[in-house]
């Protein structure tokens, strides 16, 4: 089975370093050939992000919602995700990302807003029904020279977490067990 | 393999309804016979919770850290977890719950503090390295008559999430793949 | 001195109930004739909110930053403020609302997201340097029939808080006291 | 009128640097002779913090609740306030700090948890009805050599904020205006 992966970038400027960080994280995490990635650079969609209805936006939203894994990446604006990323997520109904495994990524200028991915972006994704398998990932933009090494560390932690979670899955109540 | 499960209850009063909610959640989630549960009712340990060092507390902390699954349950005090639960978690070093799958549970008087498990308790557990497989669970204490049904709904969602996560685990980079 | 008041509404739909709630709050809080209010309905500016630079948006941002009091009001989307409101705030530089007294208002369908104004919108405004004189105000949209009474209660609390704060201001170190 | 000031320190170790930071902040903020300070070092009260009822604890709680200004200071444990500080605050009923101006202070090892005072401690105090006149104050413990200078900057910002707030208080609806 080919895993369906989405990368959603909330930077109002296209082709940002934030996109590069997210792409690297996916490469470090998943086995080559086991997945297909779709990238949504929201900078390309600012003209329609508040249009309602919008077939184009609806297709983008649906694609992410049907992903196995989605990386939501944004520069840190005011200690949290951008309005652009939030505007994309606002288009979902309640629980619109149910069952999607999601990794929250914020890039920032220094360590000051390190807590942002875990206290702001992760709860937002979880509110939509997404599953965040560990802490959010905060990347200091000035560390691009060490991108591979830093992202490898994060990927190793997510991989370890996912293996631990899979171990628990094997002890779950069977799907068809009688409910009380 | 027998799954190791811990339930940690942060209610200063012992044998609370909060404990009952947590126990029910574990029963609904896991297959009978597949796990062993240890309950830590922190109300029994208020006299040593701030003692340092304490062999007894250290043993409790170590037991939880070596669990596969831990349910952290607390009544809602001031919109969040109790100081008693936090005092127990404060005894861990950084990353002290690494790899433990954790479910945050808060009980409250009404819906006003529904966001507490997701925005307050979940990020705290994640900060310690725990993995929270979905939203936090908030239970309105007045609904004890419908405990089974409500907890079943939450358990079904966690079970579904864990199966989805297990699916991703099968596409991870092999543990021994060459690192860049 | 005439107080300068701004109301900023983050609803993608214009002339919303959220705007009505914010206007009512200002009326209940301030003495008639003592202030002038500017309303920014961000629904009217979705076409330029991501344009950079934009003279029109810059003028709106500057007007709010020079206000004495600003009410930031938004419907609750995904347990927090809208992407539209965030996109407006993202246009500010760091500390761009320094010294502005700000009241965070969220309207929502039920009590589930009551914590949103205090845990999400207030910290965002404070990050920008604004001063929030009390808890955020959450209004359940179904209560429009009791709008006056409910908003009066909130206004009374803010008024009481502001009087308490003024009492402390009289004991501050003089502005020109020697610094260490 | 003499201002009543309380300093509450949530460090399980007594006479901490965190206490020193809080004391310095009060000195920089208020005019000498205009206030009286009571210090509560919670390290001295761990044996009774979970006792219920407790006359001693009740007296401490009441003293803080009747303060004009209270500084709540804690080392950063797990990205937020300590369980000890929370246990003290848990003893209040809902709205137990109504009308108290409160400054949240966290000390930490580095900038990683800078957001803690604003996203964790401030909302907790606000939930209790306290009024936080600006952002929370985060102090990096390694900067004790520059304590005076750094705290002076924070004090200047709070002082400026309080003067701005006092300006708004003069335009409030009169206390006895007719309610709708």
UniProtKB/TrEMBL annotation, chains A, B, C, D:
InterPro entries: Flavoprotein-like_sf, FMN_Rdtase-like_dom, NAD(P)H-dep_FMN_reductase
Residue stretches making up the NADPH-dependent FMN reductase-like domain: 4-141
Gene3D superfamilies: 3.40.50.360
Pfam families listed in its UniProt record: FMN_red
Major enzyme class: oxidoreductase
Enzyme Commission (EC) number: 1.5.1.38
Sorted UniProt keywords: Flavoprotein, FMN, Oxidoreductase
Residue ranges that the Swiss-Prot or TrEMBL entry lists as coiled coil: none
Superkingdom of this protein's organism: Bacteria
SUPFAM superfamilies: Flavoproteins
Gene Ontology molecular function, alphabetical: FMN reductase (NADPH) activity
Protein name from the UniProt record: FMN reductase
